[in-house]
Amino acid sequence: MDDVCGILVVDKKIGVTSHDVVARVRKNFGVKKVGHAGTLDPNATGVLVLLLGKFTKMSGIFLNQDKEYTAVVKLGERTESGDSDGKVVSERPVTVKEKEIRAVVLGFKGESEQVPPMFSAKKVKGKKLYDLARKGLSVKREPNIINIKEIEVTRIDLPHVGIRVACGKGTYIRQIADDMGEKLGCGAHLTELRRIRSGDFTLSRAIPFDALENMDAERFSESIIRI
Fold first, then answer.
1. Nearest to 25 by CA among 223, 222, 213, 218
2. Range of the structural domain that residue 78 is part of
């Protein structure tokens, strides 16, 4: 399938990297040119847009498109990584009221500055921040201008808070979770993250990652979106 060209939308499962998904498509279907339009952390799930063939040259277009997520934030614990993988660095009682939580969450809407977390794939002087963070190093990061188009609380079951976020490029949801904890005065970290939309591509068009294992060439070809 060297000449395959188009888009494949995959529902990435927890525990696999975005590169694992790319490698699976290369190996199982013989597609040489495969890229993706925005990394998902290993512990995140959901929409991963794969670019096949000549579409890899248009990665910049797809990377710049808005994305939408659902997430669960745990209040009362701050971790070094901003998610449940990291060591807990502070614990505080959760005494905030629901109306305070909703007000803080809604306060993220619009344009603002966000400092990228150390545990991220962003590069500083050619080095990925998470590589430095794993060595116990911390470097100065310049803030990015981000744009939260939509944000809402979907459920509150303390200490857990569910949120939905539609945002522009370069937004780190784990940093929103960390900032929520700071604003509420109790600390917080991200426990679940699912991307439900990337650009115009939603979960309804996504193939489960495990389905790629036994998919035949015909079904694979039918699953490719050709624009």
1. 213
2. 67-198
- Sign of the CA dihedral with 53 first, then 54, 59, and 65 last: negative
Q: Is 165 exposed, middle or buried (0-12, 13-18, 19+ CB in 10 A)?
A: buried
Contact 196, 68 (CB under 8 A): yes
27 phi, psi to nearest 5 deg: -70, -50
- Distances, alpha carbon 101 to alpha carbons 96, 104, 105, 123, 194, in Å: 7, 5, 6, 32, 21
Claim to verify: residue 193 and residue 204 sit in the same structural domain: no
Question: Helix H segments across 110-172?
Answer: 129-134
Mean pLDDT calculated for residue range 190-204: 97
Residue-wise pLDDT tens digits, 65-80? 999 999 999 999 999 9
Of 202, 141, 201, residue with least CA distance to 172: 141
Say yes or no: 131 and 187 in one domain. Answer: yes
**Domain co-membership, 139 together with 206:** no
State the pLDDT at residue 1. Answer: 59
- The domain tally of the chain equals 2
Asked if residue 1 belongs to a domain, the reply is: no
Average pLDDT over residues 210-214: 94
Which residues are part of the catalytic machinery? Answer: 41
Q: Is the pTM here over 0.90, yes or no?
A: yes
Task: Tell whether 84 and 194 lie within a shared domain.
Answer: yes
- Phi-psi sector, 125: left (phi>0), alpha (psi -120 to 50), beta: left
